[in-house]
């Protein structure tokens, strides 16, 4: 059953009566007769709402009444695989399923087991074989009131690959079907939107998520995705509007508060952002992201001891973050420790970066920043010089060092590094692709400080086009507060 149809069903009086009867029986320790499909619908309802224990209890109850019932076995197998990361139990339950070849849930479970076992090609070949079977059946299809099974199957497989972070395979599968006219329309647009997001085509993703929301205006996951697409394009005000819609639907969605905080932070409204991060932390006290963001804001406000306290709280759960975020977290910790005069502790954070696979050149640049924070310019220059030499004067390393000089107000040194680099890019434009995303935003900021207004506008436009997020970081102070980067240069009277 398509997701939107199932959502309507669980909101119906028919389902609510079944659920009430089941819960009354469970509360009194008695049994109530139900069809197995109805019990599994109840299990699915619990699972959708995050009540995993109750979901499994419902599936077990189904098996008590109907031993070896395929839907219950498949439900428990899916929970074992996805929720409990227990493929062995999932395989054991799958082996007990009687109708493996004709049951669509059994087909998907087998594919899932193959995929997680690193047998991706075997998985795809199996799904293609089943798809051909559906296509052959569809040739004799004469019921115009429902969608042919091959269309639904192709959309489901595309969604399966989205779930497994394989957008290229998802794209191949979604191209095997036309736009459906039946119940799977919302799933079709969701898959297309996820593919666009994965391919970083955020403009297209915005169009597609709006198609999803035209069908279901109360889909919080879709609003969150639309918010993310706008944010990645630095459409901060549009992203905030999405977050506001989410909070209007349900004010207790933590990610909506996080999104609002991120947008306000990007718009240089740090005190307002702080309030949303604090709210997010109330909902998710073990989540390290909010602690990191709060610590960063407080350090930016020179409330270093309070900020460092949040960073220490973040460290307890830092491993929950992606590795790239952990690197940035350690860099912020090192900077904060140095500000508090804890030089050895700051350098200890630099040592820890090696465990995250950072190169000696990358770590050397951060050591240089720690030295600057500790007012030791000579030592900093030594670290920077060694790092640049170790990187063979890599473009990325040169931009990173320049950005640190800029952050510490050492504009002549930053200009000395960036000027020849930009001149070289003008001579060899093919090297632009090797530049880190902040390159043009940083150079535009330097042009502003060096009183070169024409170059400032030129490179600010390039920064907005190449990386609006970095434009927001480096250039926000030069434009009216609260405006998206895309609006900055509409008025040529701006600096």
How does this structure look, described?
The protein is mainly alpha-helical and 495 residues long. Helices cover 72% and strands 0% of the residues. The chain contains 27 helices and no strands. It has helices spanning 3-10, 13-28, 36-48, 52-65, 70-83, 87-96, 104-116, 120-138, 149-163, 167-174, 185-198, 202-215, 220-232, 236-249, 254-266, 270-283, 288-300, 304-316, 323-339, 343-353, 360-373, 377-390, 395-407, 411-427, 439-449, 453-466, 468-475. Helix 6 (87-96) packs antiparallel against helix 7 (104-116). The longest helix has 19 residues, at 120-138. The chain is elongated. Mean pLDDT is 90; it is low at 143-148.
Query: Based on the structure, what is the oligomeric state of the protein chains?
Result: single chain
Major β-sheet, in short? none
**Model regions low in confidence, pLDDT < 50 over at least 5 residues:** 143-148
Report the sheet-strand fraction.
under 5%
Tally the helices: what do you get?
27
Report the mean per-residue pLDDT as an integer: 90
What would the principal axes of the Cα set say about the shape? elongated
Helix percentage range: over 70%
CA radius of gyration: 27 Å
Termini separation comes to: 57 Å
């Amino acid at each position: 059953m398509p997701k939107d149809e199932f959502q309507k069903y669980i909101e119906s009086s028919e389902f609510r009566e079944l659920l009430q009867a089941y819960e009354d029986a469970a509360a009194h320790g008695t049994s109530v007769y139900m069809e197995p499909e109805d019990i599994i619908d109840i299990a699915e309802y619990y699972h959708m709402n995050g009540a995993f224990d109750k979901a499994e209890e419902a599936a077990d109850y189904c098996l008590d009444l109907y031993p070896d019932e395929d839907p219950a076995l498949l439900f428990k197998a899916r929970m074992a695989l996805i929720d409990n990361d227990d493929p062995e139990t999932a395989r054991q339950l799958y082996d007990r399923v009687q109708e493996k070849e004709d049951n669509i849930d059994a087909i998907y479970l087998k594919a899932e087991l193959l995929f997680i076992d690193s047998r991706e090609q075997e998985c795809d070949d199996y799904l293609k074989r089943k798809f051909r079977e559906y296509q052959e059946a569809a040739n004799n299809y004469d019921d115009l009131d429902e969608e042919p099974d091959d269309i639904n199957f192709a959309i489901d497989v595309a969604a399966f690959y989205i779930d497994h972070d394989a957008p290229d395979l998802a794209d191949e599968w979604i191209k095997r079907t036309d736009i459906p006219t039946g119940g799977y329309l919302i799933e079709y647009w969701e898959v297309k939107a996820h593919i666009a997001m994965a391919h970083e085509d955020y403009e297209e993703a915005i169009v597609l998520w709006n198609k999803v929301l035209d069908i279901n205006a109360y889909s919080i996951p879709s609003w969150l995705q639309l918010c993310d697409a706008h944010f990645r394009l630095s459409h901060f005000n549009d992203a905030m509007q999405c977050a506001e819609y989410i909070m209007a639907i349900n004010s207790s969605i933590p990610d909506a508060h996080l999104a609002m905080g991120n947008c306000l932070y990007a718009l240089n409204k740090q005190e307002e952002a702080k309030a949303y991060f604090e709210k997010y932390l109330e909902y998710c006290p073990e989540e390290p992201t909010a602690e990191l963001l709060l610590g960063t804001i407080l350090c930016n406000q020179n409330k270093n001891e309070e900020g460092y306290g949040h960073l220490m709280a973040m460290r307890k759960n830092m491993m929950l973050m992606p590795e790239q975020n952990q690197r940035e977290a350690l860099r912020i910790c090192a900077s904060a420790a140095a500000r508090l005069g804890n030089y050895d502790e700051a350098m200890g954070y630099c040592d820890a970066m090696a465990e995250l696979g950072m190169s000696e050149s990358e770590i050397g640049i951060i050591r240089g920043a720690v030295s600057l924070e500790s007012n030791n310019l000579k030592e900093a220059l030594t670290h920077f010089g060694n790092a640049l030499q170790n990187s063979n004067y890599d473009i990325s390393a040169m931009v990173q060092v320049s950005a640190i000089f800029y952050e510490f107000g050492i504009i002549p040194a930053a200009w000395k590094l960036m000027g020849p680099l930009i001149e070289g890019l003008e001579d060899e434009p093919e090297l632009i692709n090797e530049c880190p995303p902040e390159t043009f935003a940083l150079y535009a900021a330097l042009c502003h400080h060096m009183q070169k207004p024409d170059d400032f506008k030129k490179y600010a436009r390039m920064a907005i086009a190449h990386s609006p997020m970095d434009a927001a970081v480096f250039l926000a102070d030069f434009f009216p507060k609260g405006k998206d980067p895309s609006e900055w240069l509409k008025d040529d009277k701006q600096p």
